[in-house]
Design a protein that fits this description.
This protein has about 120 residues and is α/β, with parallel strands linked by helices. Helices cover about 20% and strands about 40% of the residues.
């Protein structure tokens, strides 16, 4: 699982994100990852890109929910909020803990706000 990065998000802007659980078939180790991009019009577009990539590496994927990320790299701030109509709201507190591993010098917050 070390080959898979915990976080892949756009370096700037406001965009959709999903929280994905990776697991080896038949159980065993599992891990949650964050993926987000402005290129995705809908949350499922992100999952449709991630799922085949992870299957090639031998993982099963499950989308745990989604939301939005506002990434301000100049001020080193990330805000996690909103929800996915299709997948429901991700546990933003889990997302924030994952983001903190990658963006150690950032101020990272979350809320249930829609905007």
């Amino acid at each position: 699982m070390a080959a898979v990065r915990d976080v892949e998000i756009d370096p700037e802007g406001t965009f959709k994100y999903i929280l994905v659980r990776l697991q080896r078939p038949g159980g065993g180790e599992q891990r949650d990852i964050v993926r987000g991009t402005k290129a995705a019009e809908f949350h499922n577009h992100i999952f449709e890109k991630v799922n085949p990539e992870m299957e090639k590496l031998g993982y099963e994927c499950k989308c745990l929910g989604g939301g939005k990320i506002e990434h301000n790299s100049k001020d080193k701030k990330i805000r996690v909020f909103g929800l996915s109509t299709g997948y429901g709201k991700a546990d933003h507190s889990v997302t924030v803990e994952i983001l903190k591993k990658e963006y150690t010098d950032y101020e990272i917050t979350w809320s249930d706000d829609k905007k």
